[in-house]
Amino acid sequence: MNKIPKNLKYLIFGISLLTFIGLYSGFGIRLMIGISNKLLPITNYFFAFSSTRFDYLILSTITIFGMLYNSTRTDFKLTELIMDIVTILFSVIIMFGIGLLILTFIGKPENPLMPQYIVTEPFELYTTIFIGLGIGIPFLIIKLIKNKKHYAQHSI
What is the value of pTM for the model shown? Predict the structure, then answer.
């Protein structure tokens, strides 16, 4: 992280703080309801997932994790930093989608009085786990690639 200019670090931390404030002040709930409403006509399921302060905190730190992901590179380039943040964002979106797909199998209500198209989380931190997995997967991939290169160099 030493390669990233200080003013850019402050900008990234400011963006994270503003994102958290925006999500916490009501935009987060509207975003979750909007996602559920947009997915209903596509999937025929209403996903009743919760969002907590911890979810908002993790989502708002995507830019910081993008900066950490960028620190694995040898040289700093602004375009690579933006691509690293976008990579983590897409990874979170993909893992969130996988979490919703899993919910369609395990989250259906057992109560016959509840409509079967309403899908709920099986436990409280379900969404948080998939968001965290989405952030962690790019770091895991980088580690696997580095280990593969390390083993390839030492086996020759």
Answer: 0.85
